[in-house]
Amino acid sequence: MPATASKNRWGHRATAAAAGGGGSNGSDGATTRLEVGSSSSRNGSAPGLGTQAGAESTPPPRELLPGHLAAIMDGNGRWAAARGLPPVFGYQAGIDALRTVIHCCLDWGVPCLTVYGFSMENWRRPALEVDALLALIERALAAEVASLAARGVRLRFIGELGMLPPSLQRQIRSAELATGDNSRLHLTVALSYSGRQDLTLAVQEIARLSATGELRPCDITPALIAQHLATQQLPTQMQQPDLVIRTSGERRLSNFLLWESAYSELYFSDVFWPDFGEGELAAALREYAARDRRYGGRPSSINSADSSDTSTG
């Protein structure tokens, strides 16, 4: 019964919002396809630049890679500002970085990638900037979906998609349909997304089911709540990110996958997103592979992320 309710929620929202990830409150959002130079040509003396040319780009062994990688693609606007350019050029440059990360996931064997493209808080930005960004996202989808489909990428979108322009909603539907049979890489894009809003909607649905007698209080478990979140569209074993990367030097989650990231490893890079290349990604993955994920327990007692011991010692 909870699964049916979950299906109804996302079926309804897909009808109204073009199917069911967003720069954060401090994020500079998503990007598009316009070429602004290679990774090496973008590097320079401006702050926040990457070290792609000299960075070691060898990832850890496949068995040590995260099953689900999430990225807060922050710093696009500041990347542009450092060059005296309007923010839209930062968004344009960021698509190169996202494309690189996607290709690395495909080549190295990371099966699930979720990126924060546009947050609910980003709607507070100037209307012209928001309109330009959403138009770039729409054009990027149109330009990239065929190549993504050919490489086995399955695209999904989560967030309050009904707030997006109708033409972008149609492009989202088209992209999801075109890639729906793929499974090599599950790529989820959070657009008009808020982790708190996602949790709020889940609680509202569960409360409604409880009020009608379809659920008892004792039926409400973490697993049930997870079934009502946007990420329930993903395969069960991929719903919780193993590693969350945030670029640009900011050190916060900014309302991104709040429930799902409870046990995620966090990696913060000082590099602006447009300069986050293969070398930076490999470094993040190597650090992740070297970490001891205890989930609040001791190394010898680890069984799963559902351990009831949440101590930090």
- Please state roughly what percent of the residues sit in beta strands, choosing from under 5%, 5-15%, 15-25%, 25-35%, 35-45% or over 45%: 5-15%
Structural class: alpha/beta
Compute the number of strand runs. 6
The CATH topology, please?
Undecaprenyl pyrophosphate synthetase
CATH class: Alpha Beta
Relative helix content: 25-40%
Main sheet, how many strands, which sense, barrel? Answer: 6 strands, parallel
- Radius of gyration, taken over Cα atoms and rounded to an integer in Å: 19 Å
Number of helices: 9
Low-confidence stretches: 1-54, 307-313
Shape from CA axes? globular
What is the H-and-E element order?
HHEHHEHEHEHHEEH
CATH architecture: 3-Layer(aba) Sandwich
- Name the CATH superfamily classification: Decaprenyl diphosphate synthase-like
What does this structure look like?
The chain has 313 residues and is an alpha/beta fold. It has one domain: Undecaprenyl pyrophosphate synthetase (3-Layer(aba) Sandwich), CATH 3.40.1180. Helix content is 39%, strand content 12%. It has helices at residues 2-17, 39-42, 76-81, 87-108, 127-150, 166-179, 195-211, 222-227, 278-290, and strands at residues 68-72, 112-119, 153-158, 185-193, 243-246, 265-268. It has a six-stranded parallel beta sheet with strand order 3-4-2-1-5-6, sandwiched between helices. Helix 6 (166-179) links the parallel strand 3 and strand 4. Helix 4 (87-108) runs parallel beside helix 5 and helix 5 runs parallel beside helix 6. Residues 1-54 and 307-313 have low confidence and may be disordered.
